[in-house]
Structures are given as structure tokens and as C-alpha cells.
Amino acid sequence: MDPQGKGATRSRPAPLEFHAYGHGDQWAWAIAVAVTAALRRDLLQHPRARLLVSGGKTPAPVFRALSKAPLEWNRVDVALVDERWLRPDDPDSNAHLVRECLLQEHAAEARFETLTRPGRSIEAAVADANLHARHPPGVVLLGMGNDGHVASLFPRMRDLEHALASRNPYVAVDASGCPGAVPWPRRISLTPAGLAPAHTRLLLLRGQSKRAVFERALDGRDPQEMPVRLAFTTPGAVLQVYWCP
Ligand SMILES: O=C(O)[C@H](O)[C@@H](O)[C@H](O)[C@H](O)COP(=O)(O)O
């Protein structure tokens, strides 16, 4: 990989830094240290700090490491990058993962905003998320699927154009027909407009196959083909990619 884009084959440099670790523990702790430092800097300057996290399987060890970080967690708002349209206590929801793995130990003091709530329509949930997002995130942790999706923005999804053009931080999406979204096609997702204000942007990757997918993403710009490109083409912070085998 040529993360700084100095290779002869790439015409435009990708604004990212690539951090590779040999072991999952080192990877998880390095991310936890970086996130803690960024949140601590925010807390020095503001009454509260805001952290957005992704779901999926990848972040669980990072969340466990982060939960042990000595930080004024009672001044931290934790919210989601995206959510499957499930009840927040559903074991397959991203909210469940955050509760189980992140909101433990020291981080149990954090304030957590779910994107879904029983009895509320998806439109009402998105409106609420956009209200909360008036307080912009400082730190965003992104994940990537093997199909090149990021947040709940899937390749060639019917609502993708709308999400890309949206000025709102969150949109409801219907990813029916996208294999990577099965079995939860209805979702709420962060948009590029929601990602842009963050001063710290991390992408968490594990495994050779994800590394290969990400390298392919670096060779183009079209977000319809690989929405993960938004992680490094959306103006704002330099993307920090953390990878381990
Ligand atoms: O709700 C989701 O599906 C996620 O937030 C999603 O965007 C995730 O980051 C990727 O799908 C990677 O998932 P894995 O870590 O499980 O590969």
C-alpha cells in the first residue's frame, strides 16, 4: 500500500495515514489511545466531547480497550455512525454492541444516544438524530464492509445519491438489493455532511481481505462503486487508517 499516494500509478494523493499493527491487541490499544487523546483534547476546550462509533464485528476489541481509558466519560456523548432498523436492545443492533462492549468500566459514565427507539418511525428517528448532531462530532470511528460500504452507505444503493447530496448529518436508507446490507436493508446512516465536521476520523480495518478491498478503493474516486472512498474524499480531517491482520 502507498497510503501517502507517492506511487507512480496514482495521480492524486489520498489524504490519509496508514497505521499497521502485527497483532490485534496492539491495534485495539493504539486506537483506544488515539481516541482517548483526541477526546481529552476536546474536553480541555469544551464542556462536552462527542464520539461517533460504528457497529459490525470489527470494533468490539477497540471498544473494550476504550472502556478502560481514564477519561471524564461523564462529559462524553457517544452516538452511532449508523444503525440497522432494529430495536435498540436487539442483539444485532449496533446500540447493543456499544452497550455490551463500550459502555462498561470507566466508559459506563458516558451518555449514549441510540438512533432508534421503540414506537418511533424511522423519519422521526432521523429527525431526532439530526437535532442531536447540531453538536458536531469531534471523533468518528468508521468501519468498512468487504463490499466497500462505509456507515450504511452501500455500493449503488438506491438512496445513495440522496445521502451523498444531503446537507443533513443523518438520512434513512433502503439498501434492498445490496448483498452487504442483508438481512437489515432499512437503516439510518451518517452522510458525508455528518462526517465532515469531525476533527479526528479513523477507519478500523482487520484482515488481508479488507486491506485488499481498501487498496482497491484507493485506486478510484467513485463513491457509488465503493462508498468507503467518502472516508478519504470528504473534505475535513485526514483519514487515519488502523489495520491489523
Ligand atoms: O451496521 C453496520 O453494518 C456497520 O456500522 C457497518 O458499516 C460496519 O462498519 C461494516 O459493515 C463492517 O462490519 P464488520 O466490522 O462486521 O466487518
TrEMBL record:
MF-aspect GO terms: 6-phosphogluconolactonase activity
Listed EC numbers: 3.1.1.31
Protein keywords: Hydrolase
Enzyme class, first EC level, given as a word: hydrolase
Keyword field contains Repeat: no
Domain Glucosamine/galactosamine-6-phosphate isomerase: 26-232
Catalytic activity: 6-phospho-D-glucono-1,5-lactone + H2O = 6-phospho-D-gluconate + H(+)
Pfam families, per database record: Glucosamine_iso
Pathway assigned in UniProt: Carbohydrate degradation; pentose phosphate pathway; D-ribulose 5-phosphate from D-glucose 6-phosphate (oxidative stage): step 2/3
Family: Belongs to the glucosamine/galactosamine-6-phosphate isomerase family. 6-phosphogluconolactonase subfamily.
Purpose of the protein: Hydrolysis of 6-phosphogluconolactone to 6-phosphogluconate.
Protein name according to UniProt: 6-phosphogluconolactonase
Organism of derivation: Cognatiluteimonas sedimenti
